[in-house]
Amino acid sequence: MAAIYHLFLYFLIPLVPLSLLSILALIVRPRPIRIPIKSRHVFVTGGSSGIGLALAQQAATEGARVSILARSAGKLDEAKQSIKLATGVEVATYSADVRDYDAVSKAIEESGPIDVLIVNQGVFVAKELVEHSPEDVKFTIDVNLIGSFNVIKAALPAMKARKDRGPASITLVSSQAGQVGIYGYAAYSASKFGLQGLAQALQQEVIADDIHVTLIFPPDTDTPGFEEEQKSRPEVTAIIAASSGSMKTEQVAKKAMDGIKAGKFTVACNFEGFLLSLATTGMSPQRSFWLAFLEVITAGPIRLTALFFQWDWYKAIEKWSKTKTKKESGNVS
Ligand SMILES: NC(=O)c1ccc[n+]([C@@H]2O[C@H](COP(=O)([O-])OP(=O)(O)OC[C@H]3O[C@@H](n4cnc5c(N)ncnc54)[C@H](OP(=O)(O)O)[C@@H]3O)[C@@H](O)[C@H]2O)c1
């Protein structure tokens, strides 16, 4: 009798995860989707440098018609030549500042209806808020957040109106600083956190038009913008950012493009980023019932890991501020 009881229990144990998986398979929304890239029009803002340039090149390699937008005509031309050299594809270039809605609208109208819109432009300076001028804060929010609204608003009517062109994507390049606030990034984090709200609300508004929203969360990536930022990065910012490692531009572009094609709402670029995504997923939509399963069963342990990270970061801040105080009072050379 006891043997039958144990057998029954062994039979029951896998039933719990299997039932959870079945429920999740029924309820995850939006439904899984594939976004084709070949022969589509891919429009990349900030496509003249760094991650945007690598994404534009990746799209060209995959057979897309590519347009890139940025401010500097010279940098756009250099990017066009380098993509031509690497892929043989001639990309269209548009010189406009994303803060200027009319200029962005004109460029997007000229380029023709977009299938995959990658809103990637961004500025970042790591500085304690007390050192940041109100103008710098406004500039960061204007380019990263308001600029993204401008680009999406300009492209959306034609994207919604497209007929029989297959599923479309609106992708926003955020940052790990858009998932967790990081020392030195008050303005930058605020601008990137804003993209999360924009993306979640927008996905609900455009799902009926077969448009799928993706948010990319790169870690430190070796781009010209990053190289510039390194020059003035506070020491504590560097210590905290080191906990997520750094990546090559092409690696980030590949991860991002794979995520766009898979229609993922959230795209992490490395393992630490994946853990961060699990920890910060909150009310984000999830298309994969496997990932939803992982999110549900790891919620407690992941929260514990997040608390360990915070402990580690605050320890680094305490240590750094003690050393700074000692230095200032002349006790340490
Ligand atoms: N690199 C990293 O470590 C890292 C990490 C996480 C997230 N990110 C995000 O990834 C994105 C790309 O960063 P990146 O490192 O590749 O930067 P980047 O090398 O500095 O390139 C930025 C691109 O955006 C364009 N841009 C800047 N301001 C603009 C404006 N007002 N209007 C139109 N275009 C503008 C730039 O061209 P012009 O200057 O000619 O306009 C350039 O093409 C950003 O959103 C950034 O926040 C980067």
Automatic annotation (TrEMBL):
Protein localization: Endoplasmic reticulum
Catalytic activity: sphinganine + NADP(+) = 3-oxosphinganine + NADPH + H(+)
GO cellular component: endoplasmic reticulum membrane
Enzyme Commission designation: 1.1.1.102
Top class in the EC scheme: oxidoreductase
Location of the Ketoreductase domain: 40-210
GO biological process, alphabetically ordered: sphingolipid biosynthetic process
Pathway(s) this gene product operates in, as recorded in its UniProt entry: Sphingolipid metabolism; Lipid metabolism; sphingolipid metabolism
UniProt entry keywords in alphabetical sequence: Endoplasmic reticulum, Lipid metabolism, Membrane, NADP, Nucleotide-binding, Oxidoreductase, Sphingolipid metabolism, Transmembrane, Transmembrane helix
UniProt cross-references to PROSITE patterns, sorted A to Z: ADH_SHORT
Extent of the signal sequence: none
Family: Belongs to the short-chain dehydrogenases/reductases (SDR) family.
The name this protein goes by in its record: 3-dehydrosphinganine reductase
Organism: Cardamine amara subsp. amara
